[in-house]
Amino acid sequence: MKTLIFAVCLVAGLGVARAQHVASSPSWDPKAAAGYMDARQSWWMGWANAARDHDTACVSCHTALPYALARPALRAPLGEREMSPPERKMLEQVTKRVRLWKDVEPFYPDQTRGLPKTSESRGTEAVLNAVILATHDAETGALSDDARQAFDNLWLLQFKAGDQTGAWAWLNFHYEPWEANGSPYFGASLAAIAVGLAPGNYRSTPAIQDRLKLLRDYLQKRADKEHLFNQAMALWASAKVSDILTPAQTQSIAQALIAKQQGDGGWTIATLGPWKRVDETELDRKSDGYATGLIVHALQQAGRSTTDPAVARGRAWLVANQDHATGMWSASSLNKRRDPATDIGKFMSDAATAYAVLALAK
Known about the structure:
Layout: H1 2-24, H2 30-46, E1 51-52, E2 56-57, H3 64-70, H4 75-78, H5 85-99, H6 110-113, H7 117-140, H8 145-156, H9 183-197, H10 209-222, H11 228-238, H12 247-259, H13 289-301, H14 309-320, H15 347-360
């Protein structure tokens, strides 16, 4: 009898210990993440190099776009009812540029940056405006007139002939992974995400079906030849719009991404493409917040639960690797060695923090 009582007490004690361990396990800090993201977006919109005409700022793929995608995901964890001031200002500027589309200068005009920067700027901005406004409207549940205008601008600039049929002209400054030779696929994936995010079942609108077919064909036909970073974006897009990928492609991409998971549970952006720094320095190959956040988010969007082994390990890495002092997750440049203490050196960490938030706030 004493043995039985001891065994019961031992089991109960182990249960309490496990509960205490879970309760004291480290967790991520949404408030600190929001603070970092808001501060970085405020800096970006006030930076002279980001300024554009009509008192607006360029929408960057490294800071502003990830911020627009991820900041709303912090609304519920933080119990917020309204947008933060930097978020509201960014939305106002995007809306202004959509309304003045024929009057605002492109981000990079041909006259000051050379051909074909006007075309690249227009195509890129059309996609970014649509995904930002669609993300905002997804919260309200109704597609705004401004978002409809942004989509109209987008479809008018979609290529209907040539090698890039179905995609858009995209900025190319040879900056990986967003503004380089392979980046039109990244942009097309964002366009599909925008369509899928738009409320009111916008993706079924009869008037866009021909354009949407071109987009589907472009993404599906090229998916097998794209590097893993672009494939991760396509996997995310496939969860928003049907037939972006075939079932076989979805499975193959997910398996290829999982195969790149590192021993500590994270991923590194260095293994997701054929990157090479222009200063010939070695790429940082330790797990980073950008690759881990993006892949965990894409896998979850594609239907894998938080208990899936790869997803669970990735989420655990993210929880363990947030810098609680700053709120950020870190990642390093694919293009050259940069000082992470500088504002420019934080660009990859801006993206890393946003995608980590998307992965964890699901």
